[in-house]
Amino acid sequence: MTRKGWLLFSVMAVLWGIPYLLIRVAVRQLDPGVLVLFRTAPAALLLVPVVTHQRAWRALVRNVRWIVVFGVVEFGIPWYLMSTSERHINSSLTSLIICAVPLFSVVASRFTRTHEPIGARRGAGLAAGAVGVALLVGLDLTGGSITWIGLMSIVCVGYAIGPLILATKLRDVPGPAVVCGAAGVVALAWVPYDVFHWPARIGAETWWSVAVLSVFCTAGAVLVFFELIKEAGSSRSVVVVYSNTAIAVLLGVVGLHEPFTVGIALGFPLIVLGSYLATSVARGAATHASRDANLPIYE
């Protein structure tokens, strides 16, 4: 990866490492559907001047169908399921389950024209990652948490499909237009539900959590992620989940006093190793992969 790629990678690790803590704080007072609205509506409004300055409204309208699909699979469904799950399982476990996204991404890429072959190295990576997820889930499974872990698996599927849509269907659309349109559509879709689930009171801590989630972890982070995909390709960009997971686990243990479990200690290293192998390419295929998987998202 280039120096710019590593810089973007580091920024993403921070911006996507802190949401787990903030979500855990916000759902104490907010219904998950209300939280989705609070994350998406301000982000969409903040990007309106950017889209106007770039004269990208035509591109948004021309590609509105795929922008809506992207919004649903990346924001609308996953953020509701994740927020719901964080009411029942801790933020550390939530972030660790997201580590399976690169594995889902490799599988999802098999259904695109530009997929890379799964050789022995990548096959071993998928196997190691699967064992890691099994250890993580199996050793940390308590009570009715299987339901919430299942919901987080659906989140992983959405997070794996989203970057593929960006790389294959929306690569020529300016990033701010995609995020503005996707976030705006999702926000509007949740309004009818939120009218009947509005909280009686919202404290200052919740407002601050929502503000950081919307401005920095949504609008800012997704735009940075666009640049990262442009530099490193869709399947490799999702490997950032390992770094932000480390930050999320640290914040959960220190800030929320969550336990560092045996499942985390054994499963996390296997997931990291497995996904590293599964998302890597042989040297001989590097040039071909750079022409296909690393197509620029926007000009």
Give a description of the structure:
75% of the residues lie in helices and 0% in strands. It has 299 residues and is an all-alpha fold. The chain has one domain (3-292). Residues 283-299 have low confidence and may be disordered.
Briefly say what this structure is:
With 299 residues, the protein is an all-alpha fold.
Topology:
Layout: H1 3-15, H2 19-26, H3 32-53, H4 57-62, H5 64-85, H6 91-97, H7 101-109, H8 120-140, H9 145-168, H10 175-195, H11 204-232, H12 234-237, H13 241-255, H14 262-278, H15 286-292
Helix pairs in contact: 1-11, 1-13, 2-6, 2-11, 3-5, 3-10, 3-11, 5-9, 5-10, 6-13, 7-9, 8-14, 10-11
Rough outline: globular
Low-confidence stretches are 283-299
Task: Give the rounded overall mean pLDDT.
Answer: 79
Biggest sheet statistics = none
What Rg, in angstroms, do the CA atoms define?
Answer: 19 Å
- The run of helices and strands is HHHHHHHHHHHHHHH
Q: What proportion strand?
A: under 5%
Tell me the distance between the termini.
Answer: 20 Å
Number of domains: 1
**Tally of helical segments:** 15
Number of strands: 0
Bin the helical content. over 70%
Q: Supply the helix-strand structural class.
A: mainly alpha
